[in-house]
Amino acid sequence: MLDESTTKKLNDILSHINDTKAMESFMSNPKITDEYKTFIKYYRSLPQVQALTDSDLINLSGIEKSYYYQIFKGTRNPSRDKVLRLCIGAGLSMRETTRALELSQLAPLYPKNRRDIIISVAINQHASVLDTDTLLDKYNEEPLS
To answer: Where are the domains of the chain?
Structure first.
C-alpha cells in the first residue's frame, strides 16, 4: 500500500492517462499494484500472520473456530469487523489493515467516523482485540462483532 502523498501523486498522473498503452505502462510499476486478488491470499502472505498458527489467530482474533475455517476455506465472506479482528489479532499495521479491507471489498476505516477513529488509534497502538473492544466501550461505541 502506498502512503497518502504518493497516492495523491499517482492519482494526479492517472488523471492524465487517456490511452491503453500509457495505462499498461503505469500498471507495470510493481509499486503501484500487487498480485493479491483476495483477502485470504494477502492475509496469509504477511510475515506476522505466517509467524502464527491457526490456533493463535483464532485465539488472538476471538473469532469462533468454525467461522474462522469457513473464512479461510472461502465458504464464508467475513464482515468488516471480522476482517478487523483478524488484522488486529495478527498485529497488522494500519496500511496492511487498509489493504485487507480493500481486498475484502469492505469500507476502509473512515477518519470522520468516531468508531473508526477509535479502532485506528487501537491499531496504531498495536492493541489487542480485547483492548480495542475495551477502548470502544469506554467511548460508548459498539465492540468489534
So the answer is: 36-138
Q: pLDDT (tens digit, 9 = 90+) per residue, 11-26?
A: 777 777 887 887 877 7
Which of the two residues, 140 and 18, has the higher pLDDT score? 140
Q: What is the mean pLDDT of the chain?
A: 88
Tracing cell 477518519 back to the chain, one arrives at 111
Burial class (CB in 10 A: 0-12, 13-18, 19+), 65: exposed
Q: Using an 8 Å Cβ cutoff, are 101 and 110 in contact?
A: no
Overall CATH class of domain 36-138: mainly alpha
Residue whose C-alpha is closest to residue 69's, from 59, 82, 84, 54:
54
H or E element in which residue 103 lies:
helix 94-103
CA 56, CA 82: separation in Å to the nearest integer?
A: 15
The one-letter amino acid at 76:
R
Q: How far apart are CA 96 and CA 1, in angstroms?
A: 7
- Cβ-based neighbours of 39, under 8 Å, separated by 6 or more: 78, 83, 100, 103, 104
Q: Which tens digits make up the pLDDT trace of 86-115?
A: 999 999 999 999 999 999 999 999 999 999
